Amino acid sequence: MLQQLIDGFGTALTPTHLALAALGVLLGTAIGVLPGIGPAMAVALLLPVTYGMEPTAAFIMFAGIYYGGMFGGSTTSILLNTPGESFSVVAAIDGNPMARKGRGAQALAAAAIGHFVGGILGTMALVLLAPIIAKYAVDIGAPDLFAIMVLAFIGVTSVLGNSRIRGVASLLIGLTIGLVGLDEMTGQSRLTFGSLHLADGIDVVIVAVALFAVGESLWVAAHLRRNTFKPIPVGRPWLSRADLKRTWKPWLRGPVIGFPFGAIPAGGAEIPTFLSYLTEKRLSKHKDEFGKGAIEGVAGPEAAASSSAAGTLVSMLTLGLPTTAVAAVMLAAFQQYGIQPGPLLFERESKLVWGLIASLFVGLTLLLVLNLPLAPLWAKLLRIPRPYLYAGILFFASVGAYAVNADIFDLLVMFVIGLIGFAMRRYGLPVLPAIIGVILGPAAEQQMRRALQLSDGSLTGLVNTPFAIVVYVIILVILFFPVIKRFLPARPTAPEAEPKDKVDA
Hints:
The chain has 505 residues and is an all-alpha fold.
């Protein structure tokens, strides 16, 4: 295996393939910065361009686009509170407050290094653990996946925001939006109001762009006359010693969460980024900074997202199962060349596969080398006057929403949901639970119905596996922890507190 990887580096490091990897990283980052146009669409748009290229060169370029697009989506989340992809939603929670405080360059640096560390560790795990992960991933059933999604719902409504009730209300808004369209199992229309445009549902990208970009733009516009906004300093791209002390552990924890979730069928980067954020908030000594600019809230989820991207290649290469939109497009590219991913792919197309895996290491290194010095340049977007900046955000958001289906109706839907996002900000409802509801709601419903079908409608079908039982126990602990905490013994008072009180007296 090591010899094959060395041969793969021999393939990836040729001048032509190295140039294609660099071009892919630059194109992926540039396209990922545009709201609504992420790596999946970038790969899809560039697929016809590669018709005349050999398969190895095409997939090396796709690998660069993949990671570059992921970092580009994080850039808009951090600087403009406008996610380029659904998995970059979490980066906005603390990345955008950091940018508002003049630490946008540091947030981008933490994200870039997080992508590099997570991607390197994830790709190493892909090399070493792909056969094992693929073997166990097949055994994960509908009850297990449904339990994981319920854990994501409960976790995000319990930890984010100041009120659980508001978190649940936001989640219900997202679940309702996720119901729009035709029922996948019965074909019955739901909440379409007789419109054929809504029969296919509302795309997640449109909802994310509407709630974040449009809602934020309307909120800022409503306060422009009331508040005088000062230019935000750009800051330096290098992390201080204190920043490194707070980020190195999240960088290492993120891949542990991200890679397994990326490898399982029906996985992806959304759930692990949410869980990584919740984990970092639980473990951090700076809990009060989360939601206000905690650098751990950027470092951990970004490392988890990058390692999850490597994990998705496990199912795609060894099982032929795409778990993300990018993997689905890459699967179509394999088929375009007459190559069928599966257990025999490593034997039949050894040069291509190991060249692709080696190019992931090369692409990640290029991503760090190219984007770390560019962090201050990206951060200068914040120095644009607010009216022009948010007018530009609305323009690119509209372009991104229209590009999803090339339908004017999507623009109307985007602005209606943007008004909902404005109202949510007005009444203090967190936006993230709504996004999670839209992303995971339909998938959770599908897995729940599959589990119930297998058990002939019995609710025991949702808890008939050890994995699902463990997850539900964790959910109960999260729900009832405030009640349990009351019965726990109080912490003893520190010995030095008494002399201090006497001095004050």
